[in-house]
Write a structure and sequence with these properties.
The chain is mainly beta. It has no helices and eleven strands. The protein has strands spanning about 5, 10, 20-25, 30-35, 45-50, 55, 65-70, 75-80, 90-95, 110-115, 115-120. Strands 2, 4, 5, 6, 9, 10 and 11 form a seven-stranded mixed β-sheet that branches. Strands 1-3-8-7 form a four-stranded antiparallel β-sheet, with no helix packed on it.
Amino acid sequence: DVQLVESGGGSVQTGNSLRLSCVASGYTYTMAWFRQAPGKEREGVAAADSERRTSYADSVKGRFTISKDNDENTLYLQMNSLKPEDTAMYYCAAVNRRYTRYPPLTKNEYKSWGRGTQVTVS
């Protein structure tokens, strides 16, 4: 399993932007961002694979953009127009598998997880 390290979280005001980064210790085909707010289930936010196919949760479509740099083994999440309901711990996840359709947003599909980076929107 690869090691994943997230960065880029912080505290911002509503409407502002943040860019999260996740560096993997090695190559992995499919990567994703999940988030978990206090008292809530961990939910998929966006996923990307090495063919640049992407998936997004409905709640972030049009505001968040995921990208995967295959050369640098790095995953990014550009978050624009942030809302208080985006407040959560954001986790990077990875699995070295190609899915027939789009990369999944199901947490059980992912084998490696980072420790998370906190995003707070007020």
